[in-house]
Write a structure and sequence with these properties.
The protein is α/β, with parallel strands linked by helices and about 280 residues long. The protein folds into two domains: about 5-160 and about 240-275, Vaccinia Virus protein VP39 (Rossmann fold, 3-Layer(aba) Sandwich), CATH 3.40.50; about 170-235, no CATH class. It is about 45% helix and about 20% strand. It contains twelve helices and seven strands. It has helices at about 5-10, 15-25, 30-45, 65-70, 85-95, 115-120, 135-145, 170-185, 185-205, 210-215, 225-235, 245-250; strands spanning about 55-60, 75-80, 105, 120-130, 150-160, 255-260, 270-275. The protein has a seven-stranded mixed sheet, with helices on both faces. The protein is globular and about 45 Å long. The two termini are about 30 Å apart.
Length: about 280
């Protein structure tokens, strides 16, 4: 996967996360915002890790976590994305907060070294489920760590490398599915979405879980929406992945240690809290 996201963005063979996020924002309410706040506070280790700190949101998507950082009292927030629809999402949320001066929005790619360096350095670097969609994940890692100073933390979420043939298929199988999904027309996309939704509901039933209750409670996962996360998963291409050990070893070679990890048993995202030695 060496084709840069900018090239894919131009030729249209990509999934517009921003379009999906625009639909998600229609469902956003105070309850989901509170759940997002809780998830950020919990993983960073307290509200004081955000309040009065500088915060950069790389691949801000819907803008939800930029909003959360603002509401939790971050001193400065910079929201970054390459997708025009995502930029529109975060502008919408910022305007709802009366356009605060300490919240900036910038369009650019994590693969653009000069652009990333132009942003400066931050106390909290946040990139959840983004850098594996750039088309060159490790180059994105190299660029984004430049946003860290000696006292920074880097909250990173990256798709797990999953090789089991059961429990939803391997990461390599999903790479093929995602390529197909992004190449077919909207009608076929809808068929794929409905088939996958039926499959997921069936798996919940097999595990004796109530699908209605599960979907209703899904907002407790970072304030997200089940349906839009499913669509995001199917369409998420470019798509890369790494095992926990691969990520830890990679950053360890750069003298960046994993302070905390929330591993995923399957095809979801492993979460890492990284800091310099």
């Amino acid at each position: 996967m060496n084709k840069k996201y900018e090239e894919i963005y131009k030729d249209g063979n990509y999934f517009s996360f921003g379009k999906n996020w625009q639909q998600f924002l229609k469902t956003l309410n105070e309850e989901k915002i509170e759940e997002a706040k809780k998830s950020l506070i919990k993983f960073l280790g307290g509200k004081d890790k955000i309040q009065g700190k500088t915060f950069v949101d790389i691949g801000c998507g819907s803008g939800l976590f930029s909003l959360v950082a603002y509401k939790l009292g971050a001193k400065e927030i910079v929201s970054v994305d390459i997708d025009d629809f995502s930029i529109a999402c975060v502008e919408y949320l910022k305007n709802k907060e009366k356009n605060p001066n300490n919240w900036q929005i910038k369009k650019g790619s994590a693969l653009d070294k000069k652009f990333i360096q132009s942003l400066g350095q931050f106390d909290v670097v946040y990139s959840w489920g983004v850098l594996h969609h750039t088309g060159n994940m490790y180059q994105a890692f190299d660029n984004v760590v430049k946003l860290m100073h000696d006292e920074s933390v880097f909250y990173l979420a990256i798709y797990n490398k999953y090789l089991c043939k059961f429990k939803g298929g391997t990461s390599y199988t999903w790479l093929k599915i995602k390529k197909i999904y992004n190449q077919v027309n909207s009608f076929i996309k809808k068929i794929i979405e409905y088939l996958y939704l039926i499959y997921l509901i069936g798996m919940l039933l097999i595990r004796f879980k109530n699908p209605v209750q599960y979907i209703q409670n899904y907002k407790t996962f970072r304030g997200m929406s089940w349906y839009y996360d499913v669509k995001d998963w199917l369409g998420g291409y470019p798509y890369e992945f790494a095992s926990v050990s691969e990520v830890i070893n990679y950053f360890g070679q750069k003298n960046i240690l994993c302070k905390k990890i929330n591993p995923k048993d399957g095809i979801g995202c492993n979460e890492f809290l990284l800091e310099k030695k």
